[in-house]
């Protein structure tokens, strides 16, 4: 009996240890922009949520679910999948890298009715395209006139394009090329607006975005310009530091402050993007700098700002941002290559473009080659998604070799 009791005790301890390894990931499934559109958040039931190492779950009547993992994921990040009949996932980028341990707020799965993403993409694209065209036509009309107004515009264009403009014809050509670039940028900007869940944003964001939807960029910027970013962000940053000293007691307060900080950073980015639409590039740059000041480790902000600077021919300022982005994504890719290798490849590609523009051909070749290796590796597993990236990188490399 003594041996049997010892065996039973050992078995009990073994199962207790295994049970203690279970890791829970709570979450909510919501409909995108439901509160923004109707005044109330719509929680979606019967959405299937699953992840490797966890039993699939259906969201309940309140949109809630809990994934239970037998052990913590490698790097504390997991890939979450969600499906619901008649709906599509909006925030798939968030679900690709969902943190598990230490989470104090549920993982939010944002979905919308099938086809809504495409419809919104068209709406946002048309708004941005129309705004660009209207601004272009206004400038072209001024160039046709003689007098002080045209002279002022020519002086402003010299600052925008960072070059001397000696004739109206030159200004016309620059503005035409600018419109083409803006039209190409319209889809990228529309895609950024597309994945924002407005229910997670502040009232100021709502007001400004409604103005944007009405094509009233001046009205949107007027709202955003009343916000004391530096004061509010500095105050929030100080409060975060105080709360972190009492992490256990004030954990919920800390998460709220971080959410507020995130909202203000998002407001900064919104204002920067709207300033770009107004061709007020110095103001856009100020807002990018402010966003980075308070979210310096965010590789997405670093990447977006670096791309913007490269498009503005500020290569020397963009290059260190690309390198900082690379450092972030390399570290992230070590723990979760499936999620972060595509970001690493895209950053290398854009760095290669910048290096090529600077005539740093050898460095550009190395960047393209590394990006090509990454995309070929990804294409072996998922050719439909990554073969176009292989082709794009080969094309860039071929052009470089031709040069």
Evaluate the radius of gyration. Answer: 25 Å
Low-confidence stretches: 1-20
Q: Tell me what portion of residues adopts beta-strand conformation.
A: 5-15%
Q: Main β-sheet: number of strands, strand sense, barrel status?
A: 4 strands, mixed
Question: SS-based structural class?
Answer: alpha+beta
Describe the structure.
The chain is globular and about 70 Å long. Mean pLDDT is 88; it is low at 1-20. The chain has helices spanning 2-20, 34-38, 92-95, 116-143, 148-161, 168-194, 203-213, 217-225, 229-245, 251-277, 281-294, 299-311, 315-335, 337-357, 361-381, 383-402; strands spanning 23-31, 48-51, 57-58, 64-69, 77-78, 80-83, 87-89, 98-99, 107-113. Helix 7 runs antiparallel to helix 8 (217-225) and helix 12 (299-311) packs antiparallel against helix 13 (315-335). The longest helix is centred in the first third of the chain and has 28 residues, at 116-143. It is an alpha+beta fold. The protein has 16 helices and 9 strands.
Give the helices and strands, then pairings.
Elements: H1 2-20, E1 23-31, H2 34-38, E2 48-51, E3 57-58, E4 64-69, E5 77-78, E6 80-83, E7 87-89, H3 92-95, E8 98-99, E9 107-113, H4 116-143, H5 148-161, H6 168-194, H7 203-213, H8 217-225, H9 229-245, H10 251-277, H11 281-294, H12 299-311, H13 315-335, H14 337-357, H15 361-381, H16 383-402
Helix pairs in contact: 4-6, 7-8, 8-10, 9-10, 10-11, 11-12, 12-13, 13-14, 14-15, 15-16
């Amino acid at each position: 009996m003594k041996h049997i009791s010892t065996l039973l005790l050992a078995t009990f301890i073994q199962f207790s240890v295994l049970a203690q390894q279970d890791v829970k990931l709570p979450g909510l499934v919501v409909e995108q922009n439901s509160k923004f559109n109707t005044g109330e958040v719509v929680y979606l039931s019967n959405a299937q949520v699953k992840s490797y190492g966890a039993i699939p779950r259906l969201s309940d009547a309140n949109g809630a679910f809990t994934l239970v993992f037998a052990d913590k994921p490698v790097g504390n990040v997991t890939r979450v999948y969600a499906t619901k009949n008649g709906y599509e996932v909006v925030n798939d980028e968030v679900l690709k890298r969902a943190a598990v341990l230490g989470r104090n707020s549920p993982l939010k799965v944002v979905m919308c009715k099938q086809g809504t993403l495409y419809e919104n993409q068209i709406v946002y694209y048309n708004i941005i395209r129309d705004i660009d065209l209207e601004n272009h036509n206004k400038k072209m009309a001024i160039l046709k006139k003689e007098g002080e107004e045209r002279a002022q515009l020519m002086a402003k264009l010299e600052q925008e394009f960072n070059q001397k403009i000696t004739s109206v014809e030159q200004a016309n050509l620059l503005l035409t090329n600018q419109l083409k670039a803006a039209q190409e940028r319209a889809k990228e900007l529309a895609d950024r607006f597309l994945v924002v869940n407005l229910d997670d944003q502040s009232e100021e964001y709502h007001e400004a975005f409604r103005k944007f939807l009405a094509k009233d960029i001046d009205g949107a910027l007027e709202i955003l310009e009343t916000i004391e970013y530096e004061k509010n962000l500095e105050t929030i940053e100080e409060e975060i530091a105080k709360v972190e000293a009492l992490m256990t007691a004030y954990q919920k307060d800390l998460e709220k402050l971080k959410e507020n900080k995130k909202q203000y950073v998002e407001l900064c980015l919104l204002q920067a993007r709207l300033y770009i639409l107004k061709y007020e590039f110095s103001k856009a740059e100020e807002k990018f700098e402010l966003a980075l000041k308070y979210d310096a480790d965010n590789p997405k902000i670093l990447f977006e700002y670096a791309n913007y600077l490269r498009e503005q021919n500020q290569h020397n300022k963009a290059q260190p941002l690309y390198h900082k982005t690379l450092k972030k994504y390399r570290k992230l890719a070590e723990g979760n290559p499936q999620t972060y290798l595509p970001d690493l490849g895209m950053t290398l590609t854009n760095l290669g473009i910048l290096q090529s523009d600077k005539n740093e051909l050898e460095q550009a070749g190395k960047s393209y080659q590394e990006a090509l290796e990454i995309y070929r590796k990804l294409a072996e597993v998922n050719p439909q998604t990554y073969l176009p990236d292989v082709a794009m990188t080969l094309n860039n490399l071929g052009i470089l070799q031709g040069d």
